[in-house]
Amino acid sequence: MKKFLIPIILLITFNLHSQAHIGVMGGVDLESEYAQIGMGLNYMPFPKISIGAMAMVTPFDGGDDYMIMYNAKYSIKKFTLVGGLMTGDMTMPGMKTGMYSSSHTMRMDSEPYFGIEFKPFKNKMFKVYYNHSDMMKSVGIMMPILNIGKMKMNHMDHMDHDHD
Q1: In angstroms, rounded to a whole number, what is the distance separating the alpha carbons of residues 23 and 37?
Q2: Is 67 exposed, middle or buried (0-12, 13-18, 19+ CB in 10 A)?
Q3: DSSP character for 153?
Q4: Band (9; pLDDT cuts 50, 70, 90)
Q5: Lowest-confidence range among 76-80, 135-139, 160-164?
Q6: How far apart are CA 18 and CA 145, in angstroms?
């Protein structure tokens, strides 16, 4: 019975404040200037903490580049601090010889990254993000397309601003 009691209590505790978000994002890698689009899934076990993953691709310029980022986020008013691991395939530009340029795709080992998200508008879910790692520095915008859970995000944001 004890084996089942702890998981049940954890599930009940997580469900008191839990919420999941599916969102889309678009941006640019500042070093390569490649456009990026992506989709993310975040689960909020507590009001200010979320865990999740994002998948980003460079569909127009970067060939078959993609990144998968696993992260944890902590919200502080209008800012969200992000930290995690990223992995994927990236095209590394080579040297230009004559009219041709050479490049090769490199498989990235998991490496740490950090980021920050900023919510410029009080009642809108639109966010601006910056992610930084050794392989990538990107900036862009993100917006949720589906919220699943107990609390609405606008309600949480009002709770945060009541304490200002």
Answers
A1: 11
A2: buried
A3: H
A4: low
A5: 160-164
A6: 17
In the Cβ-directed half-sphere of 143, how many Cα atoms lie within 13 Å? 8
Say how many residues make up the chain.
Answer: 164
Count CB atoms within 10 A of the CB of residue 73.
19
Inter-residue contact 8 to 18 (CB < 8 Å): no
The DSSP secondary structure of 106-121, one letter per residue, reads: EEEEEEEEEEEEE--S
Half-sphere exposure of 31 (CA within 13 A, CB side): 12
pLDDT tens-digit series, residues 134-146: 878 999 999 988 8
Tokens of 85: 């691991």
Paired residues of 108 in beta bridges: 88
**Dist. CA 85–CA 135, nearest whole Å:** 12
